[in-house]
Amino acid sequence: MFILSFPRLEARVDWKAAMHRALAIPEIVFTICNAFVVDQGHVEGQGPYVVSDTRALAACARTSRAFHLPAITALWKDKYLTIEDVVYCLLPADVWRVADIAITYPFDCIGNRMALARSITVQDTERLVKYAPLTNALVFGGASSYSHRSHVRGYSRNQEGLLDLSDEGYYALSVLFPENLFPNLRHIYWNDLSANLAHIRSFLGPSIVSIHLYIHKSPLSSLSIVPHLPLRCPHVQDFLYRLDASVVSQRRSHHEKLVLNAVSAWNLRAIETSIISEPVLCHLSRCPSIHSVKYLLADHSRQWKAAGLSHPNAFSSLCELFLHLIPMKFAIDFFQGCRFDHLRNVFVRVIRPGRGEWPSLLRAFRAAHRQPQVLLELQINEWTSTEESDRTPLSDADMEPLFTFPSIENLVLESAGGFDLSNETVERMAMAWPHMRNLRLWVKTPPTWTRRLTIDALTALAHHCPALETLEIDFDATGITLARNPRRPPLPPSLSMMNVQWSPITSARVVAAYLSVIFPLLADASMADEADEEMQKRWKRVGSSVALFRKIRQQERMDVLGEEPALEDVVQDDDFESVSEEDPMDSD
Fold it and tell me: Where are the stretches annotated Disordered (predicted)?
């Protein structure tokens, strides 16, 4: 378990005489130990921090007195440190009685419940008082936290037995330390499945800059602390309020008021919540320091009103936006009220789109961004589809608003209607986005129109997007011959996998030869799971054959130059063995 990485805080060996004299300088030793610590915060010195190698720091703490305090200081900055780690390490072992308990949510596993075996005396808390100020972040209820368990399992010897502090343990700490035990605590991660939210009062203080609350079962009496958090923690910049889906549907309006009262009193930099209201959005739009807004696990049955963003610089400082399951009409209205100056990353998942609303959304987003050169990532996914009559594909003109984002690296558009594009439009896309790394134009169902986009359009992507790594696009791969080879790009992309969705194909051999020129590193070409089985086999053959054609072309060039191939470049027939002897490579 995590606490195995923390030593009993007693230096047993003094190797001062054997160490280099430079190690007698505390600043040097602190620098060495802090090399294992990664600062993930946006303000230097606040954290949160992640310790890359807890065992190495634990070994340093045991090495000598010179390393003891610097190593412990670095260890106890870790954002995965739990309240159980602290009290188990720093209180006498006979204080606790540990018993197995079952944890059924969000996974079935065994935890170790820490109950009191005897009363805690003032003398028992001497080490706790000494080292508690070193703590930068604490996890409460970590035994029921998926992210915490996933992290611990990466190096834990015990895959199941995470410690879980009992209610009486929390009560004992609150009695012994009526004032905040952790004066330098800056980050709180609280999961109410294993830690009653009522106990959070004992750990709040003016030093806190981020609070993450994961709410599943807390009664209204415990939730009453939420609107009072700004009074106890006035300097919070990062606030997470994640609700279980069942809680959202049952008491949505109550939680919306709690979040509004708390958020309105802070000058937040980042917020992540599964419960948000139009008044909260209006407040955040006026907040000059807001950099990140994430709205997750929404109740998609909710009836949204217009956002009503009237501020002339609404969300001008925003850098990251994540909106999950919002109606298309609300998304359009939201973007029409925004004025982005720093927005870099956007993820929007829309529901209930109507006819003609996709183009309106793209135009509204383009008009909202006053500095298009800063955008790096745009993902817009259609979560639910409308009736068949409303599935209008996006056309060449509909894509034009996106051509003005020259720095974009990741573009994902998922539309039930699909994309009816021409080769010329894809060429314009490639020229407009020279830094593109991941391009996904996802089509949920086979196109009902005659495709204008052909395999020739991929040549433009290969020539103008040298950083391309992922490609998902639907096109017509029929009608080409071995005699018609594309122009070889000066710097071929490192694309190794592509998804062609519903793309028709007649000859896997011809297509593989074609793609080996523009995407020589391609190793896998897949289709949509529901695509025709015969087509899937041909595209699978394409992915496995590109390497063969690449080596053949390489050999031809070397023959012209009179060079011999390297031993590792020799083609082995077994490497390109047929997947099925009965399935032909081509249809002809």
Answer: 560-588
Neighbours of 84 (CB within 10 A): 29
Rounded to whole angstroms, how far apart are CA atoms 215 and 222? Answer: 11
Question: DSSP per residue over 313-370, as a string?
Answer: TTTTT--EEEEEEEEHHHHHHHHHH--BSS--EEEEEEES--TTHHHHHHHHHHHHBS
Of 462, 524, 472, 522, residue with least CA distance to 493: 462
Instruction: Walk across the sheet containing 109-116 and list its strands.
Output: 96-103, 109-116, 162-165
**Cross-strand pairs, 442:** 414
- Report CA-CA distances (Å) from 2 to 14, 115, 148, 162: 27, 19, 10, 8
Are the C-beta atoms of residues 587 and 510 closer than 8 Å to each other? no
d(CA 528, CA 500): 8
List the structure tokens of 135. 């703590």
Indicate the average pLDDT of the chain: 85
Please choose, from the candidates 419, 342, 341, the residue with its C-alpha nearest in 3D space to the C-alpha of residue 380.
419
Q: For residues 393 and 420, is the Cβ–Cβ distance under 8 A?
A: yes
Q: If pLDDT is split at 50, 70 and 90, which confidence band does 7 have?
A: very low
Task: Give 382 or 43, the one with higher predicted confidence.
Answer: 382
DSSP state of 394: B
């700004």: which residue's tokens? 230
Q: Kindly give, in sequence order, each residue whose CB lies less than 8 Å from that of residue 260, ignoring residues fewer than 6 positions away.
A: 277, 279, 280, 283
What's the pTM value of the predicted model, to 2 decimals? Answer: 0.84
pLDDT at 409 over 50: yes
Token pair in block for residue 140: 């409460």
Q: Enumerate the domain spans of the chain.
A: 1-77
**In the numeric block, which tokens belong to residue 51?**
């310790």
Reported as a single tens digit per residue, the pLDDT across 440-485 is 999 888 998 899 999 999 999 999 999 999 999 999 999 888 888 8
Q: Give me the half-sphere count of Cα atoms (radius 13 Å) on the Cβ side of residue 446.
A: 12
Length of the chain: 588
